[in-house]
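Final report, Chapter 2: Outcomes

The project's central promise was a pipeline that accepts a single protein chain and returns its three-dimensional structure in a standardized token representation, suitable for archiving and comparison. That pipeline is now operational. To close this chapter, we reproduce one record exactly as it appears in the project archive, with the input sequence first and the structure output second.
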Amino acid sequence: FVVIYIDDNEVHRIPLEVLRRDMVLVPQDIFLFSDSIANNIRLGNPSQPLDAVYEAARIASVYNEIMEFEHKFETMLGERGITLSGGQKQRVAI
């Protein structure tokens, strides 16, 4: 049988509410809206301040890449904007 570990802890010993709070599933094929990077990160909480958006990007390890774009977090995605790599899309979605 298979045993899954998270930080040296068997996953079945971690309370379910902790797993649900601390984990996220990010599928391979991500859908992002034709909107700014900032608004895609804010999705689900549109009143989120820009500092929180920056922190989320740092945690997802995509902040530095976003800062390389000409319009940074206001860079538009989608049909009239830029196309992100698969990994960048996943990190924005996180």
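Archive annotation: DSSP finds five helices and two strands in the chain.
This record, like all others produced under the grant, will remain available to the consortium after the project formally closes.
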